[in-house]
C-alpha cells in the first residue's frame, strides 16, 4: 500500500480572464483529487484571487500540516498569491498549469501556462527551488509519489542492529547529515537485544511450520531449523515491540559465531511479509527499500551487483540468501542451506522470478546525498548457485551501467523491486536537492 500523504491545493485566478470557466474546472479538479489513493486533500472551495484570500488559504493549509502544496493556475493571476502562500506553508510545491480552452471572441481565456511561468520565476528568484511543474488536465501522480517517498523518510522509525558489517565502510552514515537531508534519526540496538528477546513457543512453532511448507529443509539439521524458526519469531517480535519501520542488521560475523546461525533465511521469510530488513548494517539500503515501498512497490530487497558478462550483456544480481521468498521463480527447488559462514549459514536458496525491475539506491558521498536509478529485466536462468539471485538485462549495455556505478562510487547494495518505479525518485531528488545518477 502506498504511503498516505496530505496535500494542500489552491486554485489561483484573476477576474480579467475567464474566472467562471476556471471555477468550473476547479470543481472538477477537486472531485478528481478526492479519488487519489491514500491522499487527503485540503482545498479551499473558492478561487484565490485577492492577496487577503491567499493569506487566509495559506493559514488554513499551514494549520493542516500538509506534506505537499499544489498551486493550480486556474487563469493568469497576481504574482503575490503563490509567494504569500509559499511564505507561510513549508512544503514541496507542484505548479500546475491547465490546457488552454478554445478561444472565445479572439481572447485568450485562461493564460494558465503563463501563470505557471510567473510563479516559477518568482519562486526561483526568491531562492525557493523545491517546486515541480506539470501542464495538463490531471495532477502529476509521479509528483504525488515523490511526496510519499520523502514523507516516509521524514516519519520513519529506523534502527540499526549492531553496526555496519566488518570492513564495509561505504555503508556507514553520518547521523546528523542523514537527519538534515531526510529527517531520519537512527536508533541503535545491540545484537544481543534480538538474541535474548523473549518469544513464546507458539510464535516459534508458527514460523517452523512456514519453513516446512515453503522450503526444502533437507539441507539443514533439525537443530538449525529450530534455530532459524526461533530467530524469525524474535525478529518479528522485536520489530513490533520497538515499532520499527526498517532495521539494518549487522548480519556477520557475530551472528553465526555467537547466535549459532546467520540471519539470512529468517530475513527472507519476514521480508516476504513486507518487513524492511537490510543486511550488513546498510542504513541507506534500508531507506531505499522504504522509498520503494512508499510508492506502492511490493517486497523490495537488496542485491549485490555480483557478476557481469560483457559478451552476453547481462548481470547477476546475487546475495547470500536473503531475498523475499515470495519472489521465487516457481520452478526451481526453494531450499534452505548451510553453505555460508562455515556451515552456520541457514540461507535461502532459489532463483527469483522474471519481470521488469526498478533499482534505487539512496547514497551519500562527499557530504552530499544522491540517488542511483536504473531499470532492467529479470530473465530466466537455471538454479546454479547457492543464495538468492536473478539474471538481469539492462536497456543499455551492462558495461555502461557498471562503469556508472563504480566511477561514481555508489555503494554495492541497491534496492530492487518488480515493476517500473523511476520518475517519482527523479522528482524527489530534485525537490531535496540530491544528485541523480542513472
Written overview of the protein:
By secondary structure, this protein is α/β, with parallel strands linked by helices. The chain folds into 2 domains: 135 residues, Rossmann fold; 285 residues, L-fucose Isomerase, Chain A, domain 2, CATH 3.40.275. The protein is built from 14 helices and 18 strands. Strand 15 and strand 16 form a beta hairpin. It starts with a strand and ends with a strand.
Q: Average pLDDT value?
A: 97
- Within the CATH hierarchy, at the fold level, what is the topology of the largest domain? L-fucose Isomerase, Chain A, domain 2
Number of domains: 2
E-strand count: 18
- The helix tally amounts to 14
Could you give the distance between the termini?
Answer: 27 Å
Q: Gyration radius, to the nearest Å?
A: 25 Å
Structural class: alpha/beta
Strand percentage: 15-25%
Largest sheet: 6 strands, antiparallel, barrel
CATH H-tier superfamily of the largest domain: L-fucose Isomerase, Chain A, domain 2
Provide the spatial order of strands within the biggest beta sheet.
10-11-16-15-14-17
Low-confidence segments, given as residue ranges, are none
- Tell me, what is the CATH class of the largest domain? Alpha Beta
CATH architecture of the largest domain: 3-Layer(aba) Sandwich
| Principal-axes shape call | elongated
> How helical, in percent, are the residues?
25-40%
